[in-house]
Amino acid sequence: MRPLFFLPISLLFACVPATRGWVVDVSGVVAGADGVRLSGAVVEMLGEDGSIVSTATTNALGVWSIPVMVEEGQEGTPWPMHFQASLAGYNNGDMFWHLSWLDDAWLPIPLTFGPGQNVSIGEQTTPSILLFEKGVGGGAGTLINAVTGAAEYGVEIELRRGAGAPSSATVVAFDTTRSDGGFAFAGLDSGVYTASVESQGDIGASTFPVRLEAWGSDNQVGLVAPMLSDGELLAGVSWSGDLELDMHLSGPLANYHGRYQVYSDQYIHPVTGEDKDETVAELMYESQGIESAMVYELRDGEYRISSFDETNELISDSSMMANSDVVVYLWGAENAYYETIGLGEQGTAWMGIVYDNELGILHRPQLFSSDVDPSDVDQF
């Protein structure tokens, strides 16, 4: 039975009755480093002061769920969340994430519990929380320029514990990339960390996930972007394995007359403005495991960054993309973001980031679609 009292997001989830708004079932998966889902893991939602504000336990499928109240007037506002998962025999796993209500992402079901109460039910998945067996670990990889594909030498990297860790989190290690762009970290608790690069030289700020494992986790990739000017945006996707993935960047046409698409198998490149003389957006780099696209002219409206599984295309029950360590990136003149995928999610198209330039708000919808015909995928 669904409780009559929920956790209002604006009050750090204090337990008070809802008046008007939406109850969102925030859910995700806890899995081991090998991707196997873990049952019986305790997931705690932490407040800004580190206190526990809500708790859930993963079921037999490794899934947890916590209902959160998004009150009327909070639609579209990103709210920072900190989840910590624990299970006997494993190091704790932290994930920092943002929840934001998107009307076109959820189909709400209105419910009325009493006088003055009117809520709707929505669902929102998060990236997976990974747990690594107790002990210390190490990891290494290469820092690559998302525009040129070249390895970046002499770049200072900061490491913070947890997936999506904010800049306010404690720095636990430093490294500087070598001549081949290589970086390495060791001697820390095994788990998922966030690597950050501050603006330096001709490189802009960037952030990406790093895994530290007991047996070492080499051949990881971190993407960075060149310095961008106001009004520019760079999108990227990285993944591992033999899958053929395709990054899709979708942006608004001038005067709200529809949307344009940039992706590798589209035959019309680049996207030009109304006078056909200026490039608005174009594919920048393409290789096995990395793709990027640049927007030179930001317009009011949404920019959507998605990944499409070309290898499996019309297989409706495919979860191959979700198990390929795919990461979507977004860089602007001042900020950088990344989003990881939820393990085991079925779908051949995944929308990881939506940036509303008019409102200056970034959303992480974690939207999946299956059976997307290649000729229609630009509508996703």
CATH third-level topology of the largest domain: Lipoxygenase-1
Order of helices and strands: EEEEEEEEEEEEEEEEEEEEEEEEEEEEE
Q: How many structural domains?
A: 3
Helix content: under 10%
CATH superfamily of the largest domain: sav2460 like domains
- What would CATH call the architecture of the largest domain? Sandwich
Relevant terms:
disordered N terminus; 3 domains; globular; six-stranded mixed β-sheet; Immunoglobulin-like; six-stranded antiparallel β-sheet; 380 residues; Lipoxygenase-1; 29 strands; mainly beta
Care to describe what's here?
This protein is mainly β and 380 residues long. It folds into three domains: 7-131, Immunoglobulin-like; 136-224, Immunoglobulins (Immunoglobulin-like, Sandwich), CATH 2.60.40; 233-379, Lipoxygenase-1 (Sandwich). Helix content is 0%, strand content 49%. It is built from no helices and 29 strands. The chain has strands at residues 7-8, 20-32, 42-46, 52-57, 63-71, 79-86, 93-99, 109-114, 117-125, 129-131, 136-145, 156-161, 171-176, 182-189, 191-197, 206-212, 217-224, 233-238, 245-252, 259-262, 271-272, 279-287, 290-295, 302-309, 327-331, 336-340, 349-356, 361-363, 367-369. The strands form six sheets. Strands 1, 2, 5, 8, 9 and 10 form a six-stranded mixed sheet that branches. A six-stranded antiparallel sheet has the order 21-22-23-18-25-26, with no helix packed on it. Strand 22 (279-287) and strand 23 form a beta hairpin. The radius of gyration is 21 Å and the shape is globular. The two termini are 34 Å apart. Mean pLDDT is 85; it is low at 1-6 and 10-16.
